[in-house]
Design goal:
2 domains, globular
């Protein structure tokens, strides 16, 4: 398979996911404007941060008047999962030039990882033909760039729509509904359910904390619970 074919295959593999990403990006754009973010900053966040969940949380904290350090630390905790993605992808990209590694790191998201890691694993088991192996990096580039372009465009549409929506309508309800829709399908085993329950309980108990620090505490509690549950699960499997 040629590099061009790999790239196109990556784009095609991402298309079904883009159907769900598009409204998510539009909702972020609308909420960013309703939270008081300038249009340029709202769009720049999609280009620089390029992480939907972090953008939603940062926007919510900004609207609540949280200090910058709180926004920074909270989004950092939320995005810790990307360290796991990076560790998983690292063996497949270790021999790439620096420019490739930088591109892979910048474009790494939940959706891009979920699609690309399957191709990397398949490529690692494919026989080498004519001295040349498969080129899964172009597959990754295709799937990640398709996601990036869709996110930027859907954010722009949401920002435009947000500017037309009267402030009296109120759009705060869209944020919790969106996260509920994202979280519930992911609760497929005991560790994820326990993590969600503990995080939710801590978030409710710490709701009154200043600067939305309860959100950070909930995220840390959920992560710690999930890791603890995974360790117990692994030990039980070994037994």
């Amino acid at each position: 398979m040629s590099n061009r074919s790999e790239f196109i295959a990556g784009v095609r593999a991402q298309v079904p996911i883009l159907l769900g990403v598009t409204p998510f990006g539009m909702i972020y754009g609308v909420l960013a404007i309703s939270a008081g973010l300038p249009t340029s900053l709202a769009q720049a966040m999609s280009a620089v941060v390029f992480a939907g969940s972090s953008q939603f949380i940062a926007t919510n904290l900004f609207a609540a008047g949280a200090p910058f350090v709180v926004i920074l630390l909270t989004t950092f905790v939320v995005n810790l999962r990307h360290a796991l993605y990076s560790a998983s992808v690292a063996p497949y990209v270790s021999a790439l030039p620096l420019r490739w590694k930088l591109a892979v790191a910048y474009l790494l998201t939940d959706e891009a990882y979920a699609v690309a890691i399957l191709r990397y694993r398949a490529a690692s088991s494919e026989p080498v033909a004519g001295g040349h192996g498969a080129s899964p990096h172009y597959y990754y580039l295709g799937t990640a760039l398709a996601l990036w372009a869709t996110w930027q465009a859907s954010t722009a549409v949401g920002i435009f729509l947000g500017a037309q929506v009267p402030a009296s309508w109120g759009l705060d309800f869209a944020l919790p509904i969106t996260f509920i829709a994202l979280v519930v399908p992911a609760l497929k085993d005991r560790p994820s359910v326990l993590s969600a329950v503990v995080a939710g309980a801590v978030a409710v108990a710490a709701y009154g904390w200043p600067y939305k620090l309860g959100l950070m505490a909930a995220a840390l509690a959920g992560i710690a619970t999930g890791l603890w549950a995974e360790l117990l699960k692994s030990e039980a499997a070994r037994s």
